[in-house]
């Protein structure tokens, strides 16, 4: 894979950097967010899969050069079907601060990557590494089914949530169908924003019906109750159509919602529908009470003697089991009772015994993998232990003469047998994950040539 440059677009946040005369140090983790939407492909055998990713600009390291304070993320993309890699790419995402006063404001960098895929089941993984500090990295993977769109009946694409939709210019990064559709990766909206969505309808002229059709949009809350409905008539002016609308986020309380977009014929018969979750963070209206009303029972007995700081601590430990939506919801909870109920439901949904097993793995990681003030559950070895359990075999190489210290962990009962390779890149540093044969983890068969051999 070669390394190339791609443009980015930015959404303003307000977070300062820590700067020296030559370097701007990051002030938060290099945290990736990934979203996917599927649209009709270039032919009848493929689907256009659009990947949207973002990470905070304040997660990069910047160094002064002739252009200003320059930083970049090194992005790697892998698309796998079963155990075979069918598409791979690598590119740089650069960003330059030409005025140090600009460091008073942070930015979230948003990227877009389309790929044409035939029908099937896929695993998509994207990894971002700070170009100026290879130890700073994050990765995310999703499993996704790809269907080839039918041609004999009306059908809808996936929904793409956007921070804005406006008339566009051909050649722009997010341009399609005369519009600039700026992705809202993850679908999280603040109260000051509008919730934009974009979708496409296909095969509108299939069959003999040429009468008007209707586009209906319904917003459902966390327990499936309809809180908003909107219906608009449309003319059958062509074989396909673009569907765009927006809703003020200020009308929604903090919580999880589902947008359902449907096509109806002139008699209101359903022709097709598509749905997707989105999230609201509204500090003015507060949390949606249905998040708490949906609780499945009383708090677990373990939580009755825990104060709020202990509950917050346990939720931090649960980071390798938490979804983005759950993280946002927990952040909006106020008071010990709400957090006790949330954590109780969180573990109940994951099945009997899951909490005890997970927390025992956290305790082991914190006892065995702490380094330089960093708790073990936050390290690479700690994460692998928490997610996959105790390895069947550990091969340690702490003092090889021709290589840096490394360890190889073997799991015999996962995917027919997998390994994880950890390397200490810097003297006195931690062991970092550089390679695994697990299909959902970082894969680099040339790991021993990437700065490991002395």
Rg, rounded, reads: 24 Å
CATH architecture of the largest domain: Sandwich
C-alpha geometry: globular
Structural class: mainly beta
How many beta strands in the DSSP annotation? Answer: 27
- Main beta sheet, described? 8 strands, mixed
Distance between the termini: 24 Å
How many domains comprise the coordinates? 4
- The fold-level CATH name of the largest domain is Immunoglobulin-like
**CATH level 4 superfamily of the largest domain:** Immunoglobulins
Q: How many DSSP H or I helices?
A: 6
| Average pLDDT over all residues | 86
Percentage of residues in helical conformation: 10-25%
Q: Assign the CATH class of the largest domain.
A: Mainly Beta
Residue ranges: pLDDT <50 for 5 or more in a row? 1-19
Layout of secondary structure:
Layout (H helix, E strand, L loop, with lengths): L3 E2 L3 E4 L5 E2 L3 E3 L7 E8 L6 E10 L5 E4 L2 E14 L2 E14 L9 E11 L2 E11 L6 E10 L8 E2 L3 E8 L7 E2 L2 E5 L4 E3 L3 E9 L10 E8 L5 E9 L6 E8 L6 E10 L5 E12 L8 H4 L14 H10 L6 H9 L3 H13 L5 H15 L11 H9 L4 E5 L8 E6 L6 E7 L6 E6 L18
Parallel strand pairs: 1-9, 17-23
Antiparallel strand pairs: 2-10, 3-4, 4-7, 5-6, 6-10, 7-8, 8-9, 8-11, 11-12, 13-18, 14-16, 14-18, 15-16, 18-21, 19-20, 19-22, 22-23, 24-25, 25-26, 26-27
Describe the structure in your own words.
- This protein is mainly β and 454 residues long.
- It has 4 domains: 149 residues, Immunoglobulins (Immunoglobulin-like, Sandwich); 139 residues, Immunoglobulin-like (Sandwich); 57 residues, no CATH class; 75 residues, no CATH class.
- The chain is built from 6 helices and 27 strands.
- The strands form 5 sheets. Strands 1, 3, 4, 7, 8, 9, 11 and 12 form an 8-stranded mixed β-sheet that branches. Strands 13, 14, 15, 16, 18 and 21 form a 6-stranded antiparallel β-sheet that branches. A 5-stranded mixed β-sheet has the order 17-23-22-19-20.
- Helix 5 runs antiparallel to helix 6.
- The chain is globular and about 75 Å long.
